[in-house]
Write a structure and sequence with these properties.
The chain folds into two domains: about 5-245, Aminohydrolase, N-terminal nucleophile (Ntn) domain (Glutamine Phosphoribosylpyrophosphate, subunit 1, domain 1, 4-Layer Sandwich), CATH 3.60.20; about 250-595, Rossmann fold, CATH 3.40.50. About 40% of the residues lie in helices and about 20% in strands. It contains 19 helices and 27 strands. The strands form five sheets. Strands 3-2-4-1-10-9-11-15 form an eight-stranded antiparallel sheet. It has a seven-stranded antiparallel sheet with strand order 5-6-7-8-12-13-14. The protein is globular, with a radius of gyration of 25 Å. It binds 5-amino-5-deoxy-1-O-phosphono-D-mannitol (M6R). 5-amino-5-deoxy-1-O-phosphono-D-mannitol binds near residues 301 and 353.
């Protein structure tokens, strides 16, 4: 997830572009750059790190001109270096991009065969070269962009300028967001409304597969096929604060809603649907020989530890490989028997958590191979690992992890399917059911969030004052119970415990009375009957039940004081859906109590102390 901006008009544009990027910095911040047409040629300034570094570089090398584009990067392909920073230049073309070009490897080969030198590791530079090649064939900028985009598969929002066509900006999008800003004798483009709000409130949301050509006085929208599109600008009356959160009250709520998109991005290019398989090179295994691995250690903290617990279930069930799950903060407190033949999978959103980093260093010292599952490209843990499987969730701002949890689940499931296929422990028919089920999930997640939101908000209001809450689940629903409890604790400061439902009778059952809400995660899976038995035990002690169950489960509706339903999916996929109402529950309880949802007390997004 990157941020892009563009301007065409009569003013000097570097300051506006930089300011627009500042408003988009939440979308990525590992490098940034501007390209500005000075009337004769296009000049580019780029810098690694936060925007402050770009501002310093621009102070040393000012860019003059009134047509330009800018970019703040969240690396997906290629490390955060200056050569990988946008804008990318090819011949007369400068281009910025947000998204992922899936067929970049094949296109790179074709471009190099045509004698073009590709300088960066990015998928974006390939698009710049394609546009340039079509422009060299005599096409104007808009046509060159159109022809180039017909060759790419994937997601993109792009903004392009050409040395040969000063005063023109061409933009297009598919899947990634792009907004046009209509000013007086000037036009803008940006990834999001906030980037443009100080400049204009007349905006047009570009739709997938559309191209817009902007000049100082005009804008023209067409489809990729060339059909004209008529769309009137809308007046946006959001405050700047609201706009940054896309209209949501908190980043956490925005990020809960972003999960379908984050999952899509994490799966993109990694599923081989034809062969019901997963592509090794796309999940960080290019340099790891799975056939030499006898055992797996999943090491993580907090929410990442909960996804690791689900990961153990996947790896053992689908790949039949012995798997241990370790709290990173405890790993070095014992003399773990680990070494050659062991694969450590370190799961970390930030890739910087010190406990996890130290555990990885220890495991490496003892000869283990390490695969990192991380969200921040180029962060410390992937840097020292033998391979990295990145979740493409985009920056997560809320301290309470939501979209990174679901994308970690996806990464672990991809890994398990891949290893299961190699070890012949996962038959192709079952693999196909999982691969197809995964592909359908983003849509189902979207429906669950939209369909349960209001009910969960009401339930949160009814039960929000409880002093203690229990979360129960079995099998794959046990890590979800832990995660539901952690979410509630960290943002609403309510005491909550996640328990394996079968463990309740060994202690926590003593807590239950009519003042304790018990959230029972009970999808129709192989553990269903036993979980219903545990629910009955709670009921017999007057506990109030909030059931998270499968649509059509009348038993759950009858037994639960509240029942929140999810659609029926493969057992392995239930956590992706059952976790959503729990995230929403924690959010609404916290919001009702008025706590600081995005920055709860005593916590930090990245924990770099032991
Ligand atoms: O960046 P990491 O995934 O390594 O972070 C681990 C934990 O600090 C993190 O998951 C924490 O528990 C979150 N605040 C949970 O919402």
């Amino acid at each position: 997830m990157c941020g892009i901006v563009g301007y065409v008009g009569q003013k000097e544009c570097a300051t506006m572009l930089l300011d627009g990027l500042r408003r988009l910095e939440y979308r990525g911040y590992d490098s940034a750059g501007l390209a500005v047409h000075d009337g004769k040629e296009v000049k580019v300034v780029r810098a690694v790190g936060k925007l402050a570094n770009l501002a310093t570089a621009l102070a040393q090398t000012p860019l003059k001109g009134s047509t330009g584009i800018g970019h703040t990067r969240w690396a997906t392909h290629g490390r955060p270096t200056e050569v990988n920073a946008h804008p990318h230049v090819a011949g007369s073309i400068a281009l910025v991009h947000n998204g992922i070009i899936e067929n970049h490897v094949a296109l790179r080969r074709q471009i190099e065969e045509r004698g073009q030198k590709v300088l960066s590791d990015t998928d974006t530079e390939i698009v710049a070269h394609l546009v340039n090649l079509h422009a060299k064939d005599g096409n104007d900028l808009e046509t060159a962009v159109r022809l180039a985009l017909r060759e790419v598969h994937g997601t993109y929002a792009i903004a392009v300028i050409s040395k040969d066509e000063p005063g023109k900006l061409v933009v297009s999008k598919t899947a990634s967001p792009l907004v046009l800003g209509i000013g007086e004798d000037e036009m803008y483009a940006g990834s999001d409304v906030p980037a443009l709000l100080p400049y204009t409130r007349k905006m047009i949301f570009l739709e997938d597969g559309e191209i817009a050509t902007l000049t100082q006085k005009s804008f023209r929208i067409t489809t990729l096929e060339g059909a004209p599109v008529e769309r009137a600008p809308q007046h946006i009356d959001w405050s700047e604060m609201m706009a940054e959160k896309a209209g949501f009250k908190h980043f956490m709520l925005k990020e809960i809603h972003e999960q379908p998109r984050a999952l899509e991005d994490t799966l993109r290019g990694r599923l081989d649907r034809e062969n019901a398989d997963v592509i090794a090179a796309e999940i960080g295994l290019a340099n790891i020989d799975i056939s030499k691995i006898d055992r797996i250690y999943l090491i993580a903290c907090g929410t990442s530890h909960h996804s690791a617990l689900a990961g153990r279930y996947y790896l053992e069930k689908l790949a039949r490989i012995p798997t241990n799950v370790e709290l990173a903060s405890e790993f070095r407190n014992r003399d773990a028997v680990i070494g050659k033949g062991d694969l450590v999978v370190a799961v970390s959103q930030s890739g910087e958590t010190l406990d996890t980093l130290m555990a990885v260093k220890e495991a490496k010292k003892r000869g283990a191979t390490v695969l990192a599952i991380a969200n921040v490209i180029g962060s410390a843990i992937p840097r020292i690992s033998d391979g990295a499987l990145y979740t493409h969730a985009g920056p997560e701002i809320g301290v309470a992890s939501t979209k990174c949890f679901s994308t970690q689940l996806a990464a672990l499931l991809l890994l398990s399917i891949y290893i299961g296929r190699r070890r012949n422990t996962l038959d192709p028919k079952r693999a196909r059911e999982l691969v197809e089920g995964l592909a359908k999930l983003p849509h189902q997640m979207k429906d669950v969030v939209a369909g349960t939101k209001q009910l969960v908000a009401n339930v949160a209001r009814r039960y929000g004052d409880a002093r203690d809450v229990l979360f129960l689940g079995r099998g794959l629903s046990f890590p979800i119970a832990l995660e539901g409890a952690l979410k509630l604790k960290e943002i609403s400061y309510v005491h909550a415990e996640g328990y394996a439902a079968g463990e309740m009778k060994h202690g926590p059952i003593a807590l239950i009375d009519s003042a304790v809400p018990v959230v029972v995660i009970m999808p129709k899976d192989s553990n269903y009957d036993k979980t219903v038995g545990n629910l009955q035990e709670v009921k017999a002690r007057e506990g109030r039940i909030i059931a998270i169950a499968t649509e059509g489960d009348h038993e759950a509706e009858k037994l639960g004081d509240e029942a929140i339903m999810i659609p029926e999916v493969e057992e392995e996929l239930t956590p992706f859906l059952t976790v959503l109402p729990l995230q929403l529950y924690a959010y609404y309880v916290a919001d009702h109590k008025g706590t600081d949802v995005d920055q709860p007390r005593n916590l930090a997004k990245t924990v770099t102390v032991e």
